[in-house]
Hints:
This protein is α/β, with parallel strands linked by helices. It contains 13 helices and nine strands.
Amino acid sequence: MIIVTGATGALNGATVDHLLEHLPASEVAVAVRDTAKAERFAQRGVEVRHGDYADPGSLPAAFAGADQLLLVSSNDPTANAISLHHAAVDAALTAGVKRILYTSHQAAAPDNPFLPGRNHFATEQLLAASGIPWTSLRNGFYAHSLQWLAGPWRETGVIATPGDGPVSWTAREDAAEAAAAILASDGAYGGPTTITAPAAPTFAELAEIASELSGRTVRYQQMDEQDWIAAQLAAGRPEHMTHFLLGFYQAAQAGYFAGVDPLLGELLGRQPRNARNALAATTR
């Protein structure tokens, strides 16, 4: 039995869809906070269970019988993600889960300026200490986030950020399909497993791509961090989110998102989507 958490979200929901292309519904279950939102899976014969990281008592039953358990990482920047993940790993131990897979990030590191990278690293340490066989899906930075991380360049003709560096912009759809392939491999991949697009363009290079796609000049401007923060606050972005995002640009400039790996293309059996595809989708 493969049990997938967070299946009402875009990433793990798509993973379940891909799993069902290869496995009968009787071999897949989902553990979600709101079972009503998982009705589409129930209609396909997938068992829907209630499981909430913030309610640890709900988790052992939600994870029971799992040969493989796919844990989605918390995406709430205001939550104590490590505590939530700790509860999930402890519940997996209680439930006798045979293998844990976790949606991590390629930049999982204890000194990453971007908070999720530090959280992912700490969670990987929890997995390693659990004694349960585990796989950490170190996905590249999701390319759809260029919609806001590149700023309003379609209106301004400028990509302005407080830091620049290579980022292996990776399609969330591709990461989901790869996760399903790894789950279907029944333990062929262990430990940290990097899943990225084949290239890592900088924001300056993205400006060149945006120029080609839009047919007009789009230039890159690196802003002073304090000026960028002031501009974000003036635009109405909450202060905590502004500083959260600043960590991303600092990490990019320090090279945390620069790595690329051919594994994603191998798992997909085709060329993965890339940053150009993501930018093209925003120019339509």
